[in-house]
């Protein structure tokens, strides 16, 4: 099925072609017509399924088809859990809206940077706003933006927003929106909290599931090694060098652990940088750019900082430590094996983590292959 069969305009099809895409992913095939119809949407979609284009493309079309308002009130609001994901969504809006006439104005706002430049930009008007919840409420409090004309609301990675404690902020934002609007909710997992949110938010939604709930993509090979806690850095160094891995995303449980591992890898002549909440936005953006371009081999990240990392051909993901939540395991390894390409997800399991591994296997409904870590 080509993109041209989904009801998108010539301007959008041209932008899709410019991006090198020819065939929509399964979620795009289902979500684009649903969003164009004006229905509410509930989509269970893992990262790497193409879900971002699945809502940015039809939103661009819906807004472009309507009467153009010179004052540019916010007509589409996209909420994301992290800065990185907000930036990624913003890039998608800009890329796909490049040939629209007139051009729709979009912006991205998040915390960790000065608020004044954001206030100035927003007071000039914006059609599509991508934001993290906390910074959006700060801007509302400063009268920099009004949300009373929002026509479409998107909650992207809603499960992650709830995990990060944004539920109160989300309810505050919902209270500022018009009651009559289209609501789109995307989530990789369906927790009881997500189900409760959807019951209160969505009206007769179109339901889309493109992957088994809580499952890992079948393009990802998963392997777990039993490794002494104190030997993990040495074993990871050996894995990277022996296999000549050139692009590896490594997850740690703590910011301190990320810094410590980065130092050890660099000492072993493996170029690495860390991203986490204590790093400035500039440092995080720079590290991610170096990783994408091949300037460094390893990016060490905490779960929150890694949200929004979008590298289509990322070959290797390593769980240096298992996450506290089994659902986060699915999020982590969803960074590889994207867009139908193969990927490898490696987990280094200390004795204390063996029960956590069993819980992961129970969640994904599969036994993870064990590897030999002789001497470690």
UniProtKB/TrEMBL annotation:
Keyword tags: ATP-binding, Cytoplasm, Helicase, Hydrolase, Nucleotide-binding
EC identifiers of the protein: 3.6.4.13
Domain Helicase ATP-binding as annotated: residue spans: 32-208
Stated family: Belongs to the DEAD box helicase family.
Residue ranges of the motif Q motif: 1-29
Residues annotated as domain DEAD-box RNA helicase Q: 1-29
GO cellular component: cytosol
Annotated Helicase C-terminal domain residues: 235-376
Chemical reaction(s) catalysed: ATP + H2O = ADP + phosphate + H(+)
Organism: Methylomicrobium album BG8
UniProt keyword annotation of Hydrolase present: yes
GO MF entry, a single one: nucleic acid binding
SMART domains: DEXDc, HELICc
Pfam families per record: DEAD (PF00270), Helicase_C (PF00271)
Taxonomic lineage: Bacteria, Pseudomonadati, Pseudomonadota, Gammaproteobacteria, Methylococcales
Record's protein name: DEAD-box ATP-dependent RNA helicase RhpA
A Gene Ontology BP annotation from the UniProt entry: ribosome assembly
InterPro entries listed in its UniProt record: DEAD/DEAH_box_helicase_dom (IPR011545), DEAD/DEAH_RhlB (IPR044742), DEAD_box_RNA_helicase (IPR050079), Helicase_ATP-bd (IPR014001), Helicase_C-like (IPR001650), P-loop_NTPase (IPR027417), RNA-helicase_DEAD-box_CS (IPR000629), RNA_helicase_DEAD_Q_motif (IPR014014)
């Amino acid at each position: 099925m080509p993109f041209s069969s989904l009801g998108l305009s010539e301007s959008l099809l041209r932008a899709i072609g410019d991006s090198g895409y020819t065939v929509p992913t399964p979620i795009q095939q289902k979500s684009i017509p649903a969003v164009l119809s004006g229905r509410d949407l509930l989509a269970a979609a893992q990262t790497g399924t193409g879900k971002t284009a699945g809502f940015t493309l039809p939103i661009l079309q819906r807004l472009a088809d309507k009467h153009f308002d010179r004052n540019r009130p916010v007509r589409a609001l996209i909420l994301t859990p992290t800065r990185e994901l907000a930036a990624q969504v913003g890039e998608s809006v800009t890329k796909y809206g490049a040939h629209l006439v007139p051009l729709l104005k979009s912006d991205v706002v998040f915390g960790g940077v000065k608020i004044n430049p954001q206030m100035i930009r927003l007071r000039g008007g914006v059609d599509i706003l991508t934001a993290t919840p906390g910074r959006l409420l700060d801007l509302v409090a400063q009268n920099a933006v009004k949300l009373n004309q929002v026509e479409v609301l998107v909650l992207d990675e809603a499960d992650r927003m709830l995990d990060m404690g944004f539920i109160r902020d989300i309810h505050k934002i919902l209270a500022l929106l018009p009651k009559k609007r289209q609501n789109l909710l995307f989530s990789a997992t369906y927790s009881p909290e997500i189900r409760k949110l959807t019951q209160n938010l969505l009206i007769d939604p179109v339901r889309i599931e493109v992957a088994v709930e809580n499952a890992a993509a079948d393009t990802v090979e998963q392997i777990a090694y039993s490794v002494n806690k104190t030997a993990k850095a040495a074993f990871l160094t050996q894995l990277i060098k022996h296999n000549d891995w050139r692009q590896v995303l490594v997850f740690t449980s703590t910011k301190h652990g990320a810094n410590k591992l980065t130092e050890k890898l660099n000492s072993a002549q493996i170029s690495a940088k860390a991203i986490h909440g204590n790093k400035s936005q500039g440092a995080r953006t720079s590290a991610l750019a170096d990783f994408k371009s091949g300037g460094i081999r390893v990016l060490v990240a905490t779960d929150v900082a890694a949200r929004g990392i979008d590298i289509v051909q990322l070959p290797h993901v390593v769980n240096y430590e298992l996450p506290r939540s089994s659902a986060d395991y699915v999020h982590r390894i969803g960074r590889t094996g994207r867009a139908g390409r193969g990927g490898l997800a490696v987990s280094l399991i200390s004795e204390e983590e063996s029960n956590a591994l069993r819980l992961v296997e129970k969640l994904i409904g599969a036994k993870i292959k064990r590897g030999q870590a002789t001497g470690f």
